[in-house]
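Quick start: what a row looks like.
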Amino acid sequence: MGTIIYIVGIVLSVLAVIDIIKKPIGLVGKIICCALVLLTSWVGLAVYFLWAKNHITEWFK
C-alpha cells in the first residue's frame, strides 16, 4: 500500500511541475513554485491543486 501512495505522490508532483512550467510567469517564479511544491511533499501538492493553481499567475505579475 505504501508503494502505491509513493507512486501517486510522484505522479502528482510531476503533473504539478509540468503545470507550473506551462504558466505564463517568469523563470524565477517557476523555480520558486516548483521548489515549494516539491519540498513540501503532500502539503504542497494539496495547496497547489486545491488553491494555488488558479492564483499563481496573479502572484507573479
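That is the whole record. The chain has a mean pLDDT of 93. The first helix runs from residue 2 to 22.
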